[in-house]
Amino acid sequence: DAGVIQSPRHEVTEMGQEVTLRCKPISGHDYLFWYRQTMMRGLELLIYFNNNVPIDDSGMPEDRFSAKMPNASFSTLKIQPSEPRDSAVYFCASKMGDTQYFGPGTRLTVL
Amino acid sequence: KNEVEQSPQNLTAQEGEFITINCSYSVGISALHWLQQHPGGGIVSLFMLSSGKKKHGRLIATINIQEKHSSLHITASHPRDSAVYICVTPEGAQKLVFGQGTRLTINP
Q1: pLDDT tens, A56-92?
Q2: I want to staple A75 with a disulfide (CB 3.0 to 4.6 A). Which of A69, A96, B90, B96 is the partner?
């Protein structure tokens, strides 16, 4: 298996633009997680899905953030409009059983 | 909410040294994870343990559930072990609480 796939790996955008991050989980995994990592706050859980259904989105910072999982093999995290303070590395992870498998992350820079 | 504290925050050692990273948490848990984040940013799950000790190559993880403490040891450390090591505890059924990480640098 190729592992968790994220795209793009790097994204640079201007404040106010819409940003869409993509994730393909490992086939057969029934949980998918979106995390954000910053120097100040470390790793934080944003939202997670179980069988494509959002279970807990209490970590989503504000209404500018939204996440979808239209099917078992694809999820998106959208920021609209983006702000400089959204600059971070966004990780997607999938899980079946006890171990989460992390994607390589998307480094987002909002100018 | 579980508070997870790691020590030290930064650790620099010479190749070959025995390394210990500590993790303490405030709320009783059933299991704990150790993650490794490489300088390039990739995150790898090293261990999930609920009691006693686990060993994988030169890495050894121990946990004491009663004392709410876990340690990660690296024997015969190597520069390629240089990474950030993160202790993670569960919160509820699926959420995780992350320690702030220990940045390990092994000099040749």
Answers
A1: 888 898 899 999 999 999 999 999 999 999 999 999 9
A2: A69
Structure tokens of A74?
A: 């694809």
Say which residue the tokens 């820079």 belong to: A109
Per-residue pLDDT tens over the stretch B4-48: 999 999 999 999 999 999 999 988 787 899 999 998 888 988 988
Mean pLDDT, rounded, of chain A? 93
Task: Decide if A102 and B101 are in contact by the 8 Å CB cutoff.
Answer: no
Spatial separation of the C-alpha atoms in residues A79 and A91, rounded to whole Å: 14
Q: What is the arrangement of strands in the sheet containing B19-25, beginning at the earlier edge strand?
A: B4-7, B19-25, B69-74, B59-64, B52-56
* Residue located via tokens 């997870």: B4
Quick one: tokens of A11? 């994204």
- Chain B contact set for A42 (CB, 8 A): 86, 98-101
Instruction: Please give the residue of chain A at the shortest CA–CA distance from B97.
Output: A44
Nearest CA to CA, how far is B98 from chain A (Å)?
A: 6
Structure tokens at A39: 């120097």
